[in-house]
Design brief:
Layout lengths: L9 E2 L1 H8 L3 H9 L6 E2 L5 E4 L2 H13 L4 H9 L9 H35 L34 H6 L1
Length: 162
């Protein structure tokens, strides 16, 4: 891993990429989504402050555990003066995200358990299948699919004289 001299306060996109392990295209994408920021030189080259390394690490760690980028962006934007997240920030955010991940894990376990049932029967019935029709609230009242009645368009003459 290339070392960045301590005296260097800004990084080029290539240096940030080499140091963070994120592809240049990923860094550009993160910037377009408001996760990191850069300034432009007179030659229109991007320059990132050194704290972009920690922000990229934060984003990548959160992504690895399945946190959506929009949620990560909101968390970063909520930090005072959009500062770089520290250990306490990660602890607070990861606690909240942990509950969200637990719910996703519960849903995935349910999906896995019912997937075996569907492979066995192969029906994918809209009436009873928990994969095609999860949390069905109408299935107790009606069965099968229903089409909504179409509104018949009146011809222009009928609308004028109607």
């Amino acid at each position: 891993m290339p070392q960045i001299p301590q005296t260097l306060h800004e990084l080029s996109v290539g240096q940030l990429s080499a140091r963070s392990g994120a592809a240049v295209s990923a860094l550009h994408f993160y910037e377009s989504k408001g996760l990191i920021s850069s300034r432009r030189t007179s030659g229109n080259q991007r320059r990132y402050s050194r704290d972009a390394l920690r922000r990229v690490a934060f984003v990548r760690a959160a992504q690895r555990v399945g946190i959506p980028l929009a949620t990560i962006r909101d968390a970063l934007a909520a930090l005072p003066e959009e500062r770089t997240p520290n250990r306490e920030d990660w602890a607070r955010l990861s606690e909240a995200w942990s509950r969200e991940l637990d719910e996703r894990i519960r849903q995935l376990h349910r999906l896995r358990d019912h997937l075996t049932d569907c492979i066995g029967c192969g029906c994918l019935s809209l009436e009873t299948c928990v994969l095609s029709n999860p949390d069905d609230i109408s299935g107790d009242r009606i069965t099968g699919s229903r089409l909504m009645p179409e509104r018949r368009q009146q011809p222009a003459e009928e609308r004028e004289h109607g």
